[in-house]
Amino acid sequence: MVGPGRNPARYEGPAVRFENVGLRYGRQTETLRDVSFDLEPGSFTFLTGASGAGKTTLLKLIYLALRPTRGLITAFGQDVATLPREAVPALRRRVGVVFQEFRLLDHLSAFDNAALPLRLAGLKPKAYRDDVGELLAWVGLGERMHAMPATLSGGEKQRLAIARAVVGKPDVLLADEPTGNVDHEMALRILRLFVELNRLGTTVLIASHDQDLVRQSGKPVMHLARGKLGPASVGRAA
Amino acid sequence: MSESNLTEARARLWRPAPLLPKEDERDGALVFVVAVLCFLACVAALAALAADRAATGWRGELSGEVLVQARPGPNETPALAAERAAAALAGVPGVTEVVALGRSEAEALLEPWLGRGGLEDLPVPQLVVVELDREAPARRGALDTALQADGVDAVIHDYEAYLGDVRRAGTLARAGAVGTAALIACAAAAVIAFATRAGMAARREVVEVLHLSGAEDAMLARLFQARFAKLAAVAGVIGAGGAAVIAAGLRALSGSGGFLPILPVDWSDLPWLLLCPLLAAFIAALSARRTAMELLAGFE
Asked: For a tag site, which of A2, A60, A61, B188 has the least CB within 10 Å?
């Protein structure tokens, strides 16, 4: 698996840091309140909470789809509030995201979808053709690389979305309910995939309400309830 | 060819698909509207070229001729005075031909204002038409000197006053055509801006995913810029083609006699229409880029 590569400007502190972050949509009550945590490089963390607890909102803050209404967020040591607009794409390329609804591009083949971050990073097709093929084979889509997303099953779409998120070897991988649309067996397979990526050095944060999966992982858990982060715990392996 | 060679060949031929979906059901309508605008712009441009040519022709005709009115002296007939004036002017350098008009010809000149007949009792002026050399026309002073030297009492009417009017009319026609073309270009830019907004709204999901995957604003804007420039170029070819067919038809029908003497179209005008697709693409690219950058600024 080869991507544009991890950012050469190494930063020794937390990959992501939240300090008293709050977010309010319009004039509603705060969706997130006084959220503080660090995501250490190479860590693997679950983010749990009931529907509407603010898990997706928190992930959106990390991949800069939203700006906090208060508090401080730093990504790789940079304050995102003061980050110039031109610098945002480069920072986003260091974060891979598996969206809850996959968000695959229907007019592109599985191969082109998976290769998207590399293409946006300016790599020539010749430079990534073989690697993307290998990655798709690794996630079990080797035979389906020329298929269009509309013809893929839920599980295949899920794995394709994961392939797209990891193809650029991001420093941080965010996954929003990545096992929400698959059976338990596929969920475990996907979890193993994330663990493997984590072993390769990627910081992983998975938002999930699948308590069984969290327990089986044995990984640290951050729990969100009504927009507030509870004390950290550890999922227990079954 | 073995199967592995076939797969290898297929892999070599593979190219990434365009980042934006290729087709849109609104493309046909957009091409039609821009093609109509391009057609109108081409017609305006042809009208400007024709107006310029007509004005140049009229100026040439007017500046190439002078009318002299001879006043008979005592015991001299008007016809004789005209003959003497013609003789005096014939040798002046820069004069190519001198013709003393007879009474009937002078009456014919007055006919549009005074009507046919009934001019027998009127003192119709005796006129001399002086054709000037187009390259080195005789100056008014030289004509005056020649007439005075021969003792001819005459008034010289040149067409300076009319030339001014013709120049103004030509300038006005050109400015009108250029203004019309500029307005059409603005309308085309507005249409493209509207289409870009609609296109981005229709592909918001695609744009968002590209944006969140690390695409830069300029790169996303380039996608829309290229798309609309291509559509506008196609529309430009259609519009310019339509205008060229009509212009060529008019020119072919007119022949050398001039089917449209007021706005004469020439074959040499047609190559200018080749600029239309290029200009249309340029305007569309500018408009699409500006609109896309504005809209992308609203994305987080």
From this structure: A2
Contact residues of B toward A, CB < 8 A: 11, 14-17, 19-22, 205-206, 208-210, 212-217, 219, 297, 300
- Its domain, for residue B37, covers 22-52+170-296
Closest Cβ–Cβ partner in A64, A109, A120 for B17: A109
Q: Which residues pair with B65 in a beta bridge?
A: B131
For residue A51, the model assigns a pLDDT of: 83
Complex confidence, ipTM: 0.85
Q: Are residues A109 and A84 in the same domain?
A: no
Q: What is the per-residue pLDDT across B190-202, written as a single tens digit (0 to 9) for each?
A: 999 999 999 888 8
Structural domain includes residue A155: yes
Verify that A123 and A227 share a domain, yes or no: no
User: Does residue B143 form part of some domain?
Assistant: yes
Mean pLDDT of chain B: 83
* pLDDT tens string B84-95: 888 888 888 888
Which of B124, B152, B180 finishes a domain?
B152
Return the CATH number at A59. 3.40.50.300
Check A89 against B216: CB less than 8 A apart: yes
Beta-carbon count within 10 A of B198 CB: 13
With CB atoms and an 8 Å threshold, state whether A115 touches B16: yes
Our CA-based measurement puts residue A233 at a distance from the nearest CA of chain B, in whole angstroms, of 31
> Does residue B10 form part of some domain?
no
Interchain contact, B214 vs A103, CB within 8 Å: no
Instruction: Provide DSSP, B218-262.
Output: HHHHHHHHHHHHHHHHHHHHHHHHHHHHHHHHHHHHHTTT-SSSS
- Amino acid in position B29: A
- The chain B residue lying nearest A81, using CA atoms, is B300
- Cα atoms in the Cβ-side hemisphere of radius 13 Å centred on A123: 23
Cα distance between residue B263 and residue B53, in whole Å: 8
Q: Residue A91: which H helix or E strand, with range?
A: helix A88-92
Cβ of A129 within 8 Å of Cβ of B209? The answer is no
Indicate if B78 and B136 belong to the same structural domain.
yes
